[in-house]
């Protein structure tokens, strides 16, 4: 089944209810290779809330994108991959644990059908639910984690274990991520405790700070990611606050001093050798974007590059 | 066929790609009584442009609305009427005449199937296309026209006959509206020529200015509309600039000094005795709404009240 | 203890960290008659989130207000009442039940000290926590509830009992509100079920819809409220969506067609004979206000009018 | 000399650098009856600043307005009055006294040439400079003052005599306004001191609060203004905060609970019998308007109505 | 004739109706070397519309700029070049072909008078009209085209030949551009068809993608442009979407991953050896800029750098 | 006295009235090493005004920051330095000279108590007042000045000596800065006069343009600053327009083409060897920030880095 998106040379991009890249809305999961799914929960957000509106904001800007990726040999992503937009998981706003359960269930339905999920958050706590669903099929995962924060705290407000600040400690504890084959990229900024970064290392993750990205270079970074994750199914999670607030102002916890959009896309286009079984882009919050909606556009572009990465492997 | 909208007590309103009032997206026209259709053309706009984004903005706020209308006997609109969202007509941006042709064609498909169209503009020029499609089936129509401007100019820039300033002169000339059974409501503000209002009277329309609405009262206005249109199929067109800019800032040509949202809805809820065969709400432009999107919400509410009007008659 | 606010004729209003009406920040509860407390939880919000930023937004606009109220005999509110801003309750974002517990605890500390709490929300679910704290001291309360929605649903998403849609059913069940001496004012708009309004009547509340407010007149409404609540301690809760979105765009679930700001303040200024033991203003969300922040200003004004009401009784 | 504005039926309103109502920019004062002049000073603003951008914001929205006024007998204002836009007075930002001097000088140039000035502020302190210039030719003036505040304080921050809070005390002291033939309309809201209103009465002004406007009715108000000012040249000053923040959010010191735009324009259209020798509209600040720029549109409309008032008298 | 702009050390920049860099508005074309002209058409825009408001937005921010350019030997541009702002071409909104005709006519008037036009768009389709006017005098032109898209499509919606997606194919077909001496710089992002870039090469253009700009370096790029265009009159067109959306969010079709503002200006300041006979900056749309209006500022700066380029050659 | 900020892992950052980095509000100056003070004057602003709201905007975003700085050896700044937020100096809006006096007085109170002031502007004219207060104790200061403009003009509008364009000429004239040990960094863009930069050199300052920053490299720049200022107490002033408008749109006089946020922070983190006795960050104006408030966040981050610089020296 190869269903192509609406052709934006025939029908203006503003026509019709926007799905991701104008893909068809799935009425069945049958025959799909990959599916975009909205995961509109922000119950895990300790600061700015509103990422529940992220999936539709990203969809609205994604109509700008075109199906052919020149950075991976001019492949037409949707000729390589049967893709669809499957809508959103339901959630229970204000109930973090129940929301994660619902998200896990929705993602599991995709994974069970052999579909690679491309999630749109939502705050970063949702990734734990995705990891649970994906690991249930593929076993412990290699995590490739772009973010300016490690999100490996133990507890958050009220001693709660589940929040946008804790998923990647929980994932290790639950055995659904193999930290020794996982890597966190982009950490920067001031810290709560002197152990903010070492706590990730202690969990077994490899860590590359923003400064180190520029020290070692993008090509070496891509190679390090490939080497780190070799031989294991990969889940790639991309927190929009990896990028500098100039290019991604609309995030929960912006951290000044990150890579530009051009640098970010260069890194993603250099990624190679990943056995991608799931991915997401999280923390885009349209309430904090200006009228240009550049965060949503960049989030959509990031997801499209990850689709191209999968398509290039599958082709 | 009675397909109900997504239940917003079960699934949060922010989940899923938004259709009008969370109605199903039609995959077939079979069995529908009424259909919401986006008409995203702003090529007729002489001032502010961007109403091409109106349909999706109105849909996004319409998820707030609920199916039961307490102003017409607590009817569940969607139990009375089989409704769906049929997406948008395609248009040719920058080509006014061709855009009207495409809109006419899309609306005609609905009307031919016996469906009452509920259009979301787009600028006001699109109403001419709708009138052509509806009159083709129902004959010359009684027009009920809410607007702060008459839109009965002869020519606009470049001597062009088709623009948001001219549709209701064209409609009389084309014989698709019966001005003697039609009425324009809400005219106000400064004029280009001393004949701005008399030109509508000369065409045969009845005219009620904003001041007269308050002089005669809302009940008398509703009766006058009913009397004026009696015995003829009615097309109701609602330009959002009928309302004061405080309640509807996001329009092409705002005119200070109009009715409030409460007054506007009161008038619509008093309408009676209309043989409604089509209607639209036009000129909502999200680029000029603040973050609260109150113009889009009011436009959605207006359309929902018109659906309830139809449902109360059909019931 | 009569501590006066910063004098805005001496020090510009933009100087200094803004507290409510530039009141002192309390370092002790001793000697206070009334206290403003922020209750920044939005975990109960089924639609738009972000009311966690409401308390500070309302404070920022409240610096515009002056201490003397000409509608109640030119009283200087802060000479009649020893007031302070006590900061915010802590909350657990994403954990509705725990957040309510913390809010209850913070409000209880005030009530126990004999202080009348003036809460700033937060979403409307927080009122349940306040009612618990206030009723613990004063017994079952007469509720005066301004809102365009009844918030008397039984369950919300995921079958959850606690949300912004349910507090006033819970309050009856918990015996902390006496519905026979309580009243809901301002209901309007489309309904989920035909019983949306009757369910409040079934619980024992008196209900005045928006249409009825204008039918009976503001003076009669104030008298009806006084008669309904006579002889019982009153908690007054004011949801900003009572007001039309033109004057209060920045709310969670705006409902087109409400009273204007002038009408709203007229009603509040006519209130009399209430034994006010607590009150709040909720659902102001600065993310949805335009740069003029008119919702926050109106919310601050509403709270100041309620302070004047208390001061006029206490004087 | 009767120079007509650009015809907006020939040339789109967005074409060309916007002058007030698309009037010609004056290259000479010769032959003009009335002139629009920007007075872009906000050095008198005690709270929100930015009204320096007011004149151009009002001009930008004024292109919406048309030359014929149906509320005063369908007169074409610009056939009755030779009008032009003379640009802006220069000012010295951060130097209140010097800015007033420059404004006085610019307005005096108009008045000396027999031209009625229509000023666009700027904060309200600028009116003192205009009054000085106009009274220098016409003698002590009858002031018609629409505002939610009296602006009759004695001193402001730092004991300074000149600020947006003091001009109408200074004007009495300087003998350029005759308070016994002057009137302040629209006062409302909380007060700094119990004498906030009585201090205006003590100075000799008549005062009509917002509540009283609605008590006595608009027709009676217009008659009272006419009677009060009879026989003396009138300067009319309109502070945009007279209007409710829903319709005029973008002002320095918004005061919730004012008249709507429709009510405001009704009052202005009923004014009669005034010997208008100067007027202004002040305190519109585009930084606080939303994208719809409704405050600027209303300010432009107010000024256009005042032009029609003058034209109707001169005709 | 050397008329200097208003001196921003004497008169604040916010005073007066803004022309480009506060230049005089031309009342005659006599003696001018260069003229800024607004070309406010957006009828060619396939996605975001509103660039009709671009010229005045760019003018408003251009008042920030000063006359001396330190990157080209501290020349005072306006002592070298007699410049003026000649206002806007008229257009026919919604009628693409007629709008191009009017723009061509207005630009031709300048070119015929020996004036170098500096156009401010408007969408990119307007450049075709400028090229027609300029080539009519100077013969086929060398095009230097900064853009993230090639705009060399054959047809767009409805099979229409004229749109913002097609001008640089039309220009080749019409023989007004010499592709063998022309160059497109900055292409990037996803593609509609695998031939998106090769179609430009097939037409004869040289193409430098965004990636290649950084591979070869800015100095080499400037040399390549000089070599490519040597010996032929040059028209330089600058689409604001060349720049990354972080620095230019307010464009019709933003493309994530472009050069920064600093990099962009560095490239422009290195340009040399061009026989510049016309240029424009297009696609700035203030509706999508935030309150900082950084896209408009950058567009103004780009145009000012091009003026300095011309001045440095002419001097 | 080592008072720590509110712990953002215990209490959500949105709880409570925001002070800088959630530091305690000082009730006494006793025992403090450093203090954050708001200096909310914009009376010196020649273009965009509103920086009076800068201090509270910077505070609101500063709650994102954490106490430990990994770029200077993981020091906990607030364990090294006893810090507090001492609120704002009072000012006299519209009276530049008086405002400077009040600011000087407030800063002097800190300096006299041995406290290093960390000022938040306000427009850049306020730095003169700070320099006066600091030099009164420490003698003539070495100025480290980050800015895209030199601010060394002699006079501004109306021949006034005090404005945001003149402080660093005044400071030399007053003998409170030693230009031979001072340095201006970041100048760029178009000039009023060919002497714009040489006038700084003539005064004795060292100057590094934006282009030169990148030519010599960040490490060499930091060394040059250290060498220049060696042996003298340093006041560091940071104008937010040093940064490119993409990363800092909300400034008075944005100048396209500056360093990114990442580059800016890299430079600050390389600073060393400075005997810091005072510093400020100025010209952040929230009215021009989008909803993401990235300028305010970056301003807060800059100030936090300067605190870390001081802490690293003091430790």
Automatic annotation (TrEMBL), chains A, B, C, D, E, F:
Keyword Hydrolase listed: yes
Domain of life: Bacteria
Major enzyme class: hydrolase
GO molecular function, one term: agmatinase activity
Cross-referenced SUPFAM superfamilies: Arginase/deacetylase
Keyword Repressor included in the entry's annotation: no
Enzyme Commission code(s) on record: 3.5.3.11
Alphabetical list of InterPro entries matching this protein: Ureohydrolase (IPR006035), Ureohydrolase_dom_sf (IPR023696), Ureohydrolase_Mn_BS (IPR020855)
Entry keyword set: Hydrolase, Metal-binding
PANTHER family named in the record: ARGINASE/AGMATINASE, GUANIDINO ACID HYDROLASE, MITOCHONDRIAL
Sequence similarity: Belongs to the arginase family. Agmatinase subfamily.
The name this protein goes by in its record: Agmatinase
Organism from which the protein derives: Labrys monachus
């Amino acid at each position: 089944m190869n269903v192509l998106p609406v052709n934006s040379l025939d029908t203006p991009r503003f026509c019709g209810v926007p799905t991701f890249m104008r893909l068809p809305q799935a009425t069945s999961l049958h025959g799909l290779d990959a599916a975009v799914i909205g995961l509109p929960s922000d119950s895990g957000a300790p600061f700015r809330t509103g990422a529940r509106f992220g999936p539709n904001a990203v969809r609205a800007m994604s109509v700008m994108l075109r199906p052919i990726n020149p950075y991976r040999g001019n492949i037409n992503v949707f000729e390589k991959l049967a893709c669809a937009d499957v809508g959103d998981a339901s959630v229970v706003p204000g109930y973090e644990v129940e929301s994660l359960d619902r998200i896990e269930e929705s993602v599991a339905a995709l994974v069970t059908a052999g579909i690679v999920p491309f999630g749109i958050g939502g705050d970063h706590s949702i990734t734990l639910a995705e990891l649970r669903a994906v690991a249930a099929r593929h076993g412990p995962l290699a995590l490739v984690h772009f973010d300016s924060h490690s999100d490996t705290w133990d507890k958050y407000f009220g001693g709660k274990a589940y929040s946008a600040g804790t998923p990647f400690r929980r994932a290790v504890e639950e055995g659904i991520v193999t930290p020794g084959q996982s890597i966190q990229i982009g950490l920067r900024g001031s810290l709560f405790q002197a152990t903010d970064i070492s706590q990730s290392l202690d969990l077994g993750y490899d860590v590359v700070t923003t400064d180190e990205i520029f020290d070692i270079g993008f090509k070496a970074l891509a190679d390090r990611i490939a080497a780190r994750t070799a031989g294991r199914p990969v889940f790639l999670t991309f927190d929009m606050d990896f990028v500098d607030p100039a290019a991604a102002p609309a995030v929960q916890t912006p951290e000044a001093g990150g890579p530009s959009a051009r640098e970010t896309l260069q890194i993603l286009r250099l990624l190679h050798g990943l056995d991608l079984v799931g991915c997401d882009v999280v923390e885009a919050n349209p309430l904090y974007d200006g009228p240009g909606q550049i965060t949503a556009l960049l989030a959509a572009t990031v997801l499209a590059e990850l689709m191209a990465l999968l398509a290039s492997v599958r082709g």
